[in-house]
What we know:
The complex is a heterodimer of chains A (397) and B (341). With 397 residues, chain A is mainly alpha-helical. Chain A has eleven helices and seven strands. In chain B, helix 4 packs antiparallel against helix 14 and helix 10 packs across helix 14.
Amino acid sequence: MSTRGPGNLAPQAPRRSLINDPNVRAIFFQILVLGGVVLLGWYLVSNVLENLARQNIATGFSFLDREASFAIGETMIPYSPASSYSQALLVGFLNTIKVAVLGIILATVLGTIVGIARLSSNFLVAKLASIYVEVIRNVPVLLQLFFWYAVISESLPQPRQALNPIPGVFLSNRGMKFPGLADDPIWTWVGIALLAAIVGVWLLARWARKRQEATGQQFPVVLGSIGVLVALPLLTWLAGGAPTALDVPELQGFNFRGGINISPEFAALLMGLVIYTAGFIAEIVRSGIRAVNWGQTEAASALGLHRGEVLRLVVLPQALRIIVPPTTSQYLNLTKNSSLAVAIGYPDLVSVANTTLNQTGQAIEAVSIMMAVYLTISLGISLFMNWYNTRIALVER
Amino acid sequence: MKTKIIAAMGTALAIALGSGAAFAGPTLNAVKQKGFVQCGVNTGLPGFSNPDSQGNWTGLDVDVCRAVAAAIFGDAKAVRFTPLSAQQRFTALQSGEIDILSRNTTWTLSRDTSLGLNFAPTTFYDGQGFMVPKALGVSSATELNGATVCVQPGTTTELNLADYFRAKGMQFQPVVIESFDEVNAAFFAGRCDVYTTDASGMASIRSTLAPNPDDYIILPELISKEPLGPAVRHGDDEFFDIVKWTVYATLEAEEKGINSGNVDEMLKSPDPTIQRLLGSNPGMGQALGLDEKWAYNVIKTVGNYGEIFERNVGVKTPLKLERGPNGLWTNGGLMYAPPIR
Lengths: 397, 341
């Protein structure tokens, strides 16, 4: 700290009153602000409780154990109207996670493709990508959701006149139905085998990298990985007696029964979010690649790398450092925008929590659950992306 | 919807900040100071509350609000309307944003208690029904096993629907869309086999929104009791009394044959009940904290219950509803006003 003037070189610090000590002042004001915040919080909370009590409105989270008595259209876990409110909220939460995870993956893929396409030397490809980005980014996402939902529910026929492009697959305004695998215990083991194969591939890639660093010899990692990924589940399936029974959708009464269904609400929400967010990710990818000095590409080419390798080994690793932080915000946006689902009838967390709020009247509790959940999801994404960002950051030696 | 979260948070904040001003004095004082009644209504349900192209609200629920304004101010126009979705309505009332909720809201035990509402007398007895396209060939709700059903969230409708299918051991697939327009569009586009809401609302939707009303039938079963009426906040008995007795006054007027046309002659009626109601024999207005002409003003400017019913939802309107259970008790209906004395 340079509070001492040049004339103040005496060994003893001059006596000053506490009021003039910047450290003391700083602490004093911080305590003052903190106190203010705590007081305001206390005032708000006590006011809420007092007002709720005056109007005889019940408070607390005990309603979570009561029977929800409303139905939910899409559930990943067993749920019926006889289940509790907490079960209903869990269903909504899982539905939000489902659309957010799939949305993030697909938006990243689409966004990267469009971003690179905008840099293409092919005039048509570059222009189409530009038009996509400009149109999509400038139309509100809610309108886009309504648009996709209307396209799906208005353009597709009724279940009885369902389109049947390939045997077993039916397209109607109730969604897309396709055959699923009939229940068999072996499928659990196939799933476990697949997970094991993924771990195996990771270990293989590590080993191959180490070996290349040590000996310079390359190993066909891609081919090997595909081999492991296919072979392990396939062998498990064969060992389990190779069941081939399919659960094929059949028109029964009002609608199709059996098979796997992708509902129009889910499809419209996923499509809307992916197409919207990809527009922003495309711009981030484009600017990230443009930010890498052209000299890097020239130098890499001079080393004899071909175009794919230049992009993969030289340009993208550097571009990623610029791309990752803003992409994190896009992932957060996509997750939060999924709450617009309520407008087109997809039962996400907000939709279920809103219904809960209305059936129980527990506005403050329901809103705080929603806020806590979104905060947790957002912080989780943020933490993961920060970890990833640190990992790929430039290591200065 | 994100805006809904913001609205809900805003409401939470409004409850939090709702200090002295909004709740200290009785609602009547606040209303008199403002000079108008703030009334929460449906965003648009023909026959009950619907804005026309000039922004004038009409409908049965709207007339209840006008009647309260007439009782307090002698002026049926001293009302401002807040259109509310099913999701917003209760928090709007709880937080003091509106004084009366008159929005085809079903009177239930939990709303009357833990939600902190007080329900004034029922102004419309309804029941939940099902509407299906004729092409489906369904003639009874018992044939609906496996159907996809369009419904609005956060309503008793949604609960009754689940209860009914559970009780009958049938399956259904709900499509729950919050926006009134979107849920209608989804049904008429064929996204659902069945639309369910209150029978009166369904009549209104079919007559005004269906591309071709004759293509749709309303199934005969009513699966619930839906007493619809205005609600006020707990804890203000004075205002609750005013809303209650305003509704009763319209019933009493119909029973006694007083309508907006003959109310002036009726002032000279020798019938003591009429004299008390219209204030030619004072006392009732004072008991409510209102002008002695309170009921006279209601009947003169808004009319009696029969007039309100026929004007908005009766057989001569597009909704074509019979009085049925909404007739006076003297005609075998459920409408009954306690003595005004």
